[in-house]
Write a structure and sequence with these properties.
Layout: E1 7-23, H1 26-60, H2 66-71, E2 76-77, E3 86-93, E4 95-96, E5 111-134, E6 137-161, E7 164-166, E8 169-171, E9 177-179, E10 183-191, E11 197-205, E12 210-218, E13 221-231, H3 235-268, H4 270-276, H5 280-310, H6 312-336
Parallel strand pairs: 2-3, 8-13, 9-13
Antiparallel strand pairs: 1-6, 3-12, 4-7, 5-6, 5-11, 7-8, 10-11, 12-13
Helix pairs in contact: 1-3, 3-5
Length: 343
């Protein structure tokens, strides 16, 4: 059985509704389009303000810097980890406690996810609208179409984890982030009673002979924690990897904030940009210029918010110093004023 590609084809179509929009006269249609654009532009202002405040929130957001905490932890060999508690970095050789075999895989595995799939045919009904000219009127027609689809459907799925030992420490990996190589096997299992092709997909991870486990130890068992990772990386490389991931996540927040601010500014300026369409050539240029300026302002704004969030204490100190200097100058001026009463 060769590789099957998902198939879709329309088998029937019907009209389920019609709505007269108005006259098909070009002038009337033009006025309706202008009205629609004006309403959309003013609705865009409201959406723009929402995006603006969301962008501020995203700009202020930070990622949890678990790497700093982990970097302070002294890695410990599994043989010396007995009796410890709290977040620990444990290294050592491994030995499976649960002898789990994944379907269609030789040997024991640390984890597997198995799916049983059937190549099936089903029909879905889709609804869509289109605008046509009919009897001098612009009409919005609502249609339904039945689409026959063919593809793999999952009939059954199961997943299992195997507990393992590292010296005296038991590791229960379910719920952890397993940074290990995952392999996949697809097995064709013939035609079932319904006459459909079937297959089984197994994604599995085998247990390496040596691991580094980051997690909470309680009663010589690692089974969770705020950070729970299983990897073949050394403790130092693990910290480096965590730092890299945190920096990437941090920069992703900033990029999202810039995009949100840019869209917000463009939406809030929607009515003005709408007017620029009256100028055929300059209109497009004006919208491009507004977009570029919005992008630049967004980048500066995100940088400014990031600075304020990171160094708020410095700004507060400067404000207190400025207030102190202003009070001091005011008092010194008051002392220098001539005593008119004595004169």
């Amino acid at each position: 059985m060769g590789k099957k590609e998902r198939i879709e084809r329309v088998i029937s179509e019907r009209v389920v509704g019609e709505k007269i929009i108005g006259s098909a006269n070009p002038i009337a249609r033009g006025f309706r389009n202008v009205k629609k654009e004006i309403v959309g532009a003013f609705q865009g202002i409201f959406i723009g303000f929402i995006l603006f405040f969301i962008a501020i929130w995203v700009s202020c957001a930070d990622v949890e810097r678990h790497s700093k905490e982990v970097n302070k932890i002294e890695p410990v060999a599994a043989e010396q980890a007995q009796g410890l508690s709290g977040l620990q970095v444990v290294t050592g050789s491994t030995d499976l406690l649960d002898k789990i075999k994944a379907p269609n895989v030789d040997g024991y595995v640390l984890h597997y996810n198995w799916e049983k799939q059937e190549w099936n045919t089903w029909i879905e009904t889709e609804t869509y609208t289109e605008t046509v000219i009919k009897d001098g009127k612009e009409v919005e027609i609502t249609k339904e179409r039945d689409v026959e689809k063919q593809g793999w459907k999952t009939l059954e799925e199961k997943s299992k984890y195997a507990n393992f030992k590292m010296g005296p420490i038991t590791v229960k990996p379910e719920g952890s982030r397993i940074d290990l190589k995952t392999e996949s096997i697809t097995k064709n299992t013939g035609i079932n009673a319904a006459g459909n092709d079937t297959q089984q997909i197994t994604n599995y991870t085998k247990l390496p002979s040596n691991l580094t486990v980051l997690g909470e130890i309680s009663g010589d068992v690692i089974s969770g924690g705020e950070v729970f990772r299983i990897t073949t990386l050394s403790p130092d490389k693990l910290v480096e990897q965590m730092e890299k991931e945190e920096k990437q996540a941090y920069m992703t927040y900033k990029v999202i904030a810039v995009v949100l601010f840019t869209f917000a500014f463009n939406l809030m300026l929607g009515p003005i940009l709408l007017l620029t369409r009256l100028i055929p050539i300059l209109g497009g240029l004006a919208r491009t210029v507004v977009f570029i300026i919005s992008l630049i302002i967004s980048i500066v704004l995100v940088a400014l918010i990031t600075f304020v969030v990171k160094f708020w204490w410095l700004l507060l100190l400067i404000m207190f110093l400025a207030a102190g200097v202003a009070i001091s100058i005011g008092l010194s001026k008051k002392d220098k004023e001539p005593d008119t009463a004595k004169a």
